[in-house]
């Protein structure tokens, strides 16, 4: 058996490696569920979706679902599910990328961390594992959204899945869940008075 040349592996326990693997595999299933949601909205067969939908990246899939939701005018509950899914996906993409693309290195303050070289984003093991509950919640929301769009033999909007309350959000992910501030409506500007109107008012 050829041994690994990477020394950092000694600092990560077998249980931690197991959790990291579980997180990545669960994320793959979330992406697949989202692909099936887009397939449903496009009314494609699985063979058609393999050609059209599943080669697309996750961000593109989410954007197309957002565009189609505006055209189809989803039920209020279904739209609310997608809005929540969108927030969760953006947050968990951050964590997934740290695991899948981050370089493990030792930090004097935080111990071993996952660092993305392209933007120097760094997360320690504690932060990564603190997102497991949010990952599981994201999976539930994705499946609930899929049910809300309708399955074969199940009418659209009928839910077989129990909705969950949003779990506590890790501090480093809270910015993804901030509600947008309502925009103030600009007061309409009065059209400038014509010179003729001005002369008549004198």
Widest β-sheet, arrangement of strands: 1-2-3
Number of helices: 7
- The computed structural class is mainly alpha
Note the run of SSEs as H and E: HHHHEEEHHH
pLDDT under 50 segments (min length 5)?
Answer: none
Oligomer: single chain
Question: Approximately how much helix is present in the residues?
Answer: 40-55%
- The shape is globular
Summarize model confidence as the mean pLDDT.
Answer: 87
Strand share of the residues?
5-15%
Biggest sheet record:
3 strands, antiparallel
Radius of gyration over all CA atoms, rounded: 24 Å
CA-CA gap between termini: 100 Å
Q: What is the count of β-strands?
A: 3
Fold topology:
Layout: H1 14-42, H2 46-52, H3 58-72, H4 76-101, E1 103-107, E2 111-115, E3 122-124, H5 125-129, H6 132-149, H7 195-201
Antiparallel strand pairs: 1-2, 2-3
Keywords:
single chain; 202 residues; mainly alpha; three-stranded antiparallel beta sheet; 7 helices; 3 strands; globular
Give an overview in words.
- The protein is mostly helical and 202 residues long.
- The chain is built from seven helices and three strands; from the N terminus they run ααααβββααα.
- Helix 1 runs parallel beside helix 3, helix 1 (14-42) runs parallel beside helix 6 and helix 4 (76-101) crosses helix 6 (132-149).
- The chain starts with 13 loop residues before the first helix and ends with a helix.
What is shown here, in short?
The chain is 53% helix and 6% strand. The protein is mainly alpha-helical.
């Amino acid at each position: 058996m050829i041994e690994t040349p990477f020394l950092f592996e000694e600092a990560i326990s077998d249980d931690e490696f197991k959790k990291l693997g579980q997180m990545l595999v669960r994320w793959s299933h979330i992406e697949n569920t989202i692909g099936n949601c887009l397939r449903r909205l496009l009314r494609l067969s699985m063979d058609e979706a393999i050609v059209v939908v599943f080669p697309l990246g996750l961000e593109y899939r989410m954007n197309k679902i957002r565009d189609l939701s505006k055209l189809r005018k989803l039920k209020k509950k279904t739209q609310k599910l997608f809005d929540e899914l969108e927030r969760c996906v953006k947050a968990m993409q951050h964590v997934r990328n740290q695991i899948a693309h981050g370089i493990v290195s030792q930090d004097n303050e935080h111990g071993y961390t996952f660092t993305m070289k392209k933007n120097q984003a760094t997360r320690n093991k504690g932060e990564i594992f603190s997102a497991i509950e949010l990952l599981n919640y994201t999976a539930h929301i994705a499946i609930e959204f899929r049910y809300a769009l309708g399955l074969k033999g199940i009418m659209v909007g009928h839910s077989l899945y129990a909705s969950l309350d949003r779990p506590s959000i890790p501090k480093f992910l809270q910015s993804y869940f901030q509600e947008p501030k309502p925009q103030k409506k600009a007061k309409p500007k009065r059209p400038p008075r014509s010179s003729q109107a001005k002369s008549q008012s004198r």
